[in-house]
Amino acid sequence: MRSRTVTSSVQLTELGFGAAQLGNLNRATTDEASTAAVDVAWDAGVRYFDTAPHYGLGLSERRLGAALRDRPRESYVVSTKVGRLLEPTPEHAGEQDGHGFHVPATHRRVWDFSRDGILRSLEQSLERLGLDRVDVVYLHDPDDHLQQAATEGVDALVRLRDEGVVGAIGAGMNQSAALAELVRRCDLDVVMLAGRYTLLDQGALDDLLPLALDRGVGVVAAGVYNSGLLSRADVPDDASFDYLPASAELVARARALAARCAAHGVTLPDAAVQLPLRHPAVVSVVLGTRTAEQVREGARRASAPIPDALWAELEASGELRGVA
């Protein structure tokens, strides 16, 4: 699989493995299914794996580390995130986590973008992953903590990068404006953008993407299905958009896109996966994956032939904005 360069020491495969679902996102999965998904991704050529402490209160990191344990360390890239410390809450161990992950509430998440908080978070992540280093560290969802993240947080990450502890630093968010502000103010290498450069939402063309290209900051595109609306060739009535029920207008737009894709022998999710990589600032598309079959389908979508005529038609119709 082709890779794109972030820094001299970090290259990301164009398709990345998003490991949130290994943390039992929305429903439980097993260690065996998680390992099988990673194994199939490896066989497909994927060498970029993304996780975070937030995902299942560390379960995603533990499962990902276990699945990669016997792989040559220099042959893959792992990113994790900082900004949410996990503090033990044994008194709630018999309860369910209330953040969408089907795990016991053995810990609570505490926002902390201070230098000490970042160092503690990274140390704990390394322990869960069973690694002595990670390649990329993102500030995780600093929307409501932007000032601390842009100063103390970035300063801590810059020091870690300068010391060779990590290869690249950045931030990950579900909005483009704040990421653009961080790119404008800070010395970042890469950012992860979820859901804002898709077939249905190209808002990042207004701020983040041109700025990232100008500053030489790589963009990792996540949430390319907008949480479900673009994930199926036949769009159902009850599809979701950004984790909420999609409006009738959005469902109609998605179906119109699907029809245009079908006329060119392409499925809607094929185009959804491949669109971001058409922008020169984008270095990887990360797909959230739970099962081996989902990995196979994601890899197939990423490599499906898409005629230039489809992209030209979508631009001519106004459904897709040009990059220039």
UniProtKB/TrEMBL annotation:
InterPro entries in UniProt: AKR (IPR020471), FDH-like (IPR044477), NAD(P)_OxRdtase_dom_sf (IPR036812), NADP_OxRdtase_dom (IPR023210)
Pfam families to which the protein is assigned, alphabetical: Aldo_ket_red
Domain NADP-dependent oxidoreductase: 14-316
Protein name (Swiss-Prot/TrEMBL): Aldo/keto reductase
